Amino acid sequence: MIKKRMTSDEALNSQIAMNSRDRIAKMVRGTWVHAIFDEARNVKKQLLRRSEGERILLERFERTQGRCLDTTNPQSFSEKLYCRMIALNQTPNPHFTRVSDKFAARAYVADKIGEQHLVKLFWHGEDPLQIPFDNLPAEYVIKTNHGSAQVIVVKGSADRADIGNKLSGWLKRNFYWSAREGQYYDIKPRIMIEEYLKNQDGSGPLDYRFWCFGGVPEVIQVDNHAHDINPFFDRQWNQLDLYYRDQAARPFVAKPENFEHMLDLASRLSAGFDFVRVDLYNIVGNVYFGEFTLTPTSGQLKLRPESWDIKLGKKWEMRAES
């Protein structure tokens, strides 16, 4: 196809039109006209949420995996993951919403494995201006309950204004719209301030991510704070050739202390889920719950070698509620 090149007059007219739209937008911003327009746009966004969400997810699968999604007979892990995401986009699952809410999940975890496995919570609330900075320890972690990667680590003096601005922005945002993960849609945003976990040498803890199928931890991914390692291990702690981050290192990591205990905790926490990732920390043999993950990396992962996509897919016996 031969594209018609825009003439200088057409380019000028286009620029004039853009400038006119910008001027009009500035004139009505903050007025009742802008408020009505903004409300109408939000209504349209909500009305098209399910259909647009499904379209976006189908396109993301094809872009990530290089093929169309088979929604009628999914076989691989990635196919089943996207079928779950499409189902949750249509009808959010209240149980999935509960465990994805980092604050609400605490009660669920305490009931399943005991409060001793919860990271100490110093404060929680909905207003950044109410954070009791003067009563907090020298080191702590601030995060929100309704999304991912919304974390601030504080060591020493806190920049209260910067923290407040970040939190205010995060709290206004429904994390569902980031990647159309339906389990986040109905979570009420909240601030959580927790103990800063660290090893005896002062370093941050490794994140042990148990990929559980039908209540059975099958593979364990090890991650760090920088997210620059990506090794996987089986239940006997043999390193696997499985990975999905091309640039990340895959070093051998020593089997954690009390590993069998961690397997038991992951099994108990994942009971009742056809698939869920259970993240745990291990600090000198003390095991702490991190979070539940129902849609790893928002589905934007390609398992390597590709045979693992089928292997893990076979372990996932999908149920209707997924």
Fold and architecture overview:
By secondary structure, the chain is an alpha+beta fold. The chain has a domain at 94-116 and 203-315: 2-Layer Sandwich (D-amino Acid Aminotransferase, Chain A, domain 1), CATH 3.30.470. It contains ten helices and nine strands. It has helices spanning 8-28, 32-47, 49-65, 77-90, 94-100, 104-113, 160-171, 176-179, 259-270, 307-315; strands at 121-125, 139-144, 151-155, 191-195, 207-213, 216-223, 232-233, 275-283, 286-293. The strands form two sheets. Strands 7-6-5-8-9 form a five-stranded antiparallel β-sheet, covered by helices on one side. Strand 8 and strand 9 form a beta hairpin. The mean pLDDT is 91.
Biggest sheet architecture: 5 strands, antiparallel
Q: Measured on Cα atoms, how large is the radius of gyration?
A: 23 Å
Q: Beta-strand percentage?
A: 15-25%
Order of helices and strands: HHHHHHEEEHHEEEEHEEH
Could you tell me the mean pLDDT?
91
CA-CA gap between termini: 44 Å
Provide a count of the helices: 10
Walk across the major sheet and give the strand order.
7-6-5-8-9
What level of helicity do the residues show? Answer: 25-40%
User: What is the 3D shape?
Assistant: globular
Q: List low-confidence stretches.
A: none
Strand elements, count: 9
